[in-house]
Amino acid sequence: MKIVVCIKQVPDAKNVRIDPNTHTLVRQGVESIINPFDLFAVEAALRLKDRHGAHVTAITMGPPQAEEALRDVLSRGVDDAVLLSDRAFAGADTWATATALAAAVRKMGDVSLIFCGKQAIDGDTAQVGPELATILDIPYATFVKELNLDGPDHLKVVRRTDEGTEVWRLPLPALVTVLREVGDPRVPSLKHKMRAKKATLPVWGIQDVGLDQDRVGLSGSYTQVVKVFSPPRRADRVMLQGPVEDQVEQLYRYLKEAKVPGL
Amino acid sequence: MNYFLSEEQKMIQELAEQIAREKIRPVRAQLDEAEAFPSELMQVLAQSDLFGVYIPEEYGGLGGGILENCLAVEQLARACIGVATSFAASGLGAYPILLYGSEEQKSAYLPDIAAGRRLAAFAVTESGAGSDVTAIKTTAVKDGDHYILNGTKQWITNGGEADIYSVLAVTDKAKGPRGASFFIVEKGDPGFGFGKKEKKLGIRASATRELVFQDCRIPKERLIAKEGMGFIIAMKTFDKSRPGIGALGVGLAQGALDIAVEYARKRVQFGKPIISFQAVQHKLADMATKTEAARALIYSAARHMDTNPPDASKVAAMCKVFASDVAVEVTTEAVQILGGYGYMRDYPVEKMFRDAKILQIYEGTNEIQRNIIGQELNKEYGRIKETFF
Ligand SMILES: Cc1cc2nc3c(=O)[nH]c(=O)nc-3n(C[C@H](O)[C@H](O)[C@H](O)COP(=O)(O)OP(=O)(O)OC[C@H]3O[C@@H](n4cnc5c(N)ncnc54)[C@H](O)[C@@H]3O)c2cc1C
Fold first, then answer.
1. Could you tell me the pTM of the whole model?
2. Which residues form the Acyl-CoA dehydrogenase/oxidase N-terminal domain (chain B) (predicted)?
């Protein structure tokens, strides 16, 4: 079984500042890390590999230095890795990114499962996964916290939604975006680390994946960022504690203080 | 400082540091408080290949030596020497097999130890035999194709948790120092059980238990090398393992120094960060100097030891004694620099201070190490016909 994991390099959130005027991230001098949710995607893929055997390929679209992210996941046990890198990819929105990734997945051929993190912590859109599945015309499940193969060509997943959890059964090939509950990312192993250091990573540009200039990067992007602003802060939240009777009591007091009509 | 480590050695260091930071540091206080054995961390370490750094490639290891092992141990020790001791004790248990085991024994046990699938332990000490190893009472009597072991080992690190035990027992009392032998005993062997888990001052994440042998019957092929080799095997094992105790000391001292400097830069008294007081600076300066000196000794001694030199026992003892004393001094001063906060469990130096003491006791007390160094000096100078003066 062939598995692809999509990963992205993002600025380390711990050290990122927001420019007060433009509201964009100040990226200069900030170290890059692998998007934390993507490490969960890698872990989910490797666990499936541990259980059922699989060939896991990591892919990232990014500048040449994104190679570092690929070597990191190779050192954790991913089998091989592809870097999608071309000047023409620059400035891509989520759709243009998904277009490029889809072309790369098609080129690999015969892929049964694609893993993505639930979202990237820089853009926070959570769109690339679903768009990639849509372009490839395969089923997908988002916010997955548990998964396993169900027979040779189905995947059973548990997803978390605002209302509760849902259990889905997807025919393969399929795509899932995962939550941290799929398991803590494993640390590298020495043997994989040595292999990762020596590995030569293929770099694919637009010609390699058979795409035209106008479908990728800025020119292939449907969205344009017009304005960036901080959303208004959500109201304070209070978690009521203790026995139910006390909680009702407390809630009543809050509502009364808030002068809710009728109390 | 640049210690001219190879790419591979740097990788070992980097990986062990990552595990210490990401996996050990977040749980060390909890493990200490609960006196809980870190089974999950042992699995993380197993998966990282670090258990095999000093084991030859033909047995599934990475083919490194003492230096590689020390580099791994040092980084793990920066976070917690309770966890690092559990890791290092498996190596201690493996060395008798690695150094003196038959081909069959090596291929039966080393690949599992290298992969971390099975932990090992080393069992010499008894209630009446600590520094004086020759006082052991546990016996092994040959019975056809088997040996039958009787006796009780005390304070065995990884006792109950390990699957493979290198055990020293008397095979011929009349032969005195040539009358003891090493055996491999496996968890589950008939007549082999465990006593209570000890409650300790420090390294509380490590498990210390009694091993109880009651007519424990093992195949005769479990004898390591020949009958009578026991004490030699024990001494040669310590030569390999004692630099590792030094590495535990260096890592621990570095961990305490890191916290002390950071704290001293932030803590304000009399309107200034306390690091601006010379008394504090001098303490930190001594701590850093001693830690670096210990590291320099361990690394160069470990490199030297990997060439199997004739003065191995002396150098191994120097590593152990110096770095463990440094660890005790540095952790004590770290508590002092943190003042009352250092005495509280909220900061890790309280634990580091408690943990450090064991390094002066186990694997031969520091008094015994100084005896070894002194005796070796006496021998060395006895051989010299003419001295410099
Ligand atoms: C936490 C822990 C883990 C351990 N793990 C293991 C293990 O995995 N395997 C194992 O076999 N053992 C283990 N031990 C045992 C350890 O190696 C012994 O405790 C140690 O060798 C000292 O022996 P003792 O405690 O009996 O002290 P003693 O030998 O009774 O010594 C008491 C004091 O007298 C001093 N002394 C004794 N003889 C001399 C001398 N000739 N000259 C000068 N001073 C002397 C000692 O230095 C010490 O200060 C462990 C011990 C502890 C506490």
1. 0.89
2. 6-116
